[in-house]
Amino acid sequence: MQQHVIDSETEAYHALQALDFGEALPFKQAILDEASQYNETWEDRFNAVQGQVEAFAELAALSPDDVPADMLAGMKQRAAVEHDWYSAQLEEVQQGIEGYRYVQRTRAKVGPIRDVLVRMESIIGSECYNANIQNYSAWGVWEGEGRSFRYPVTYIRDGQEEKRKARVDDLQPEALITGHYKFGANELSIYRALVRIIDMLEADYGLKIARAGEEC
C-alpha cells in the first residue's frame, strides 16, 4: 500500500512538471500556488492544476455566435472579478450564456402573444369570489355576504417579487411569464399555463392566434 502511494505521488509529480499550460502559461505560478494551498497530495494538485488549465483554455475559446461579443466580454470580466478559479469562472459564464438564451427564447415565444396572455389572465383573475367577506357599502350599510375581487398576480423581476393587479406593460416577457397566483404555500403559474393552453389549442384544434408583428 505504501509503495502504491509513493508510485502514485511520484507519477503525479512528474505529470505536473510535464504539464503543458498552453495559453494559461502566463498564469502558471498563480494556478500552482492556488492548487498547493488547497491540496496536500501531488495527485490532487495535478488534478486541480490540470482542471484549471483546461478550464482556462475552454473559457478563452468560448465565443458562441448567438451571444453579442460585448455581452460575453462583460460576463467574463464579472466572473474574473468574483472567482479566482478558472473552472468557477467558466461555470458562471456558461450559466450566463444559458440565461441569455433563455431570455431570447422567452421573448420570441411570449412577446408576440403577450396581449392575449394578459387579457386571458385578467379574465381569470377577475373571477375570484369570497363568500365569507362581509360586504358593506360606502355608507356602512350591509349589502350581503360575499364579494368578487381581482386576485393579485406575483411576478419576479430582477430577482425580486412584485405583486400586481393591473398594468404589466413595463414587464419584459421573461418577467411576465413568471406571473403566478399564490395560495398559501402553493402557487399556480398562470402565465405558463396559458402559454401551454394556446399551444394546445393551436396544435390540437387548429386555432390561429394572431401574433404581434405577424402579417395577416
Concise structural overview:
It contains 8 helices and 6 strands, in the order H-H-H-H-H-H-E-E-E-E-H-E-E-H. It has helices at 2-18, 28-38, 42-61, 69-82, 86-110, 114-125, 173-176, 190-205, and strands at 128-136, 142-149, 153-157, 160-164, 181-183, 186-188.
Defining key terms:
alpha+beta; 55% helix; two-stranded antiparallel ribbon; 8 helices; two-stranded antiparallel sheet; 216 residues; elongated
Q: Helix segment count?
A: 8
Mean pLDDT: 92
The total strand number stands at: 6
Strand content: 15-25%
Main beta sheet strand tally, sense and closure: 2 strands, antiparallel
Unreliable residue runs? none
Instruction: Please give the alpha-carbon distance between the first and last residues.
Output: 77 Å
Q: Helical residue percent?
A: 55-70%
Q: Please state the overall shape, judged from the principal axes of the Cα atoms.
A: elongated
Strand-pairing-aware structural class: alpha+beta
Radius of gyration: 28 Å
- Strand arrangement, largest sheet? 1-2
Which sequence of SSEs, written as H and E, runs from N to C? Answer: HHHHHHEEEEHEEH
Give an overview in words.
With 216 residues, the chain is an alpha+beta fold. The protein is 55% helix and 15% strand. It contains eight helices and six strands; from the N terminus they run ααααααββββαββα. The chain has a two-stranded antiparallel ribbon with strand order 1-2. A two-stranded antiparallel ribbon has the order 3-4. Strands 5-6 form a two-stranded antiparallel ribbon. A hairpin with a 5-residue loop joins strand 1 (128-136) and strand 2 (142-149). Helix 1 packs parallel to helix 3, helix 2 packs across helix 3 and helix 6 (114-125) packs across helix 8. It starts with a helix and ends in an 11-residue tail after the last helix. The model has no long low-confidence stretch (mean pLDDT 92).
